[in-house]
Write a structure and sequence with these properties.
The chain is mainly alpha-helical. The protein has one domain: Lysozyme (Orthogonal Bundle). Helix content is about 65%, strand content about 0%. It has ten helices and two strands. A hairpin with a 4-residue loop joins β1 and β2.
């Protein structure tokens, strides 16, 4: 028995595995995906690192499919729900992407299915970005305003509406997006 215990060896260190907190302990500059994973775990400690990785991969893949920056969709979902698939807002929005039931039905999205909601959010944001690409001003701010306050409100005001909540929402997402870009 003693010989068996002594013959057991500690595996050699592997560059991609650094400690038990793999995704948190990885060095800065480890890549855009790990910066999103770290942000998810920091924003929502109820989500484990492997679940955060799966959600980050889903967000990255959905963003790529829609032709938008993966860090942009990640920053938006961090702001919306901290990637919590069970989030419910006081305004009656549900899931990771915080869709209201009428909006989810309009776009054919199941807001309670995290993968579908992430793909739906990427599609909706890409649609808004395309719509506002030629407008004078920041199309990302207009897309976020439409996502938050509705596209009709953006049309009515000819841009970002004067609502303090919507303006703070846009500023918060731009800040999160900048942090994610800096971390990668």
């Amino acid at each position: 028995m003693r010989d068996t215990a002594l013959s057991w060896h500690i595996p050699a260190p592997v560059r991609s595995i650094r400690g038990i907190r793999l995704f948190i302990d990885a060095p800065r500059g480890s890549g855009p995906l790990l910066s999103v994973v770290r942000s998810i775990v920091r924003a929502n400690p109820r989500i484990g690192a492997l679940d955060a990785l799966a959600l980050a991969v889903d967000a990255r893949d959905a963003a790529r499919q829609e032709g938008i920056d993966p860090q942009f969709i990640a920053a938006t979902l961090l702001q919306e729900s901290a990637f919590d698939p069970n989030a419910i807002s006081a305004a009656g929005a549900y899931g990771i992407a915080q869709f209201t039931i009428p909006t989810a039905e309009f776009y054919g999205i199941d807001p309670f299915d995290p993968r579908a909601a992430i793909a739906g959010a990427a599609h909706v944001l890409a649609t808004y970005l395309t719509r506002y690409a030629g407008a004078a001003g920041d199309p990302y701010a207009f897309a976020l305003a439409a996502y938050n306050a509705g596209p009709g409100t953006v049309t009515y005001y000819g841009g970002v509406p004067p609502y303090p909540e919507t303006r703070a929402y846009i500023a918060d997402i731009h800040e999160r997006w900048a942090r994610l870009l800096a971390e990668r």
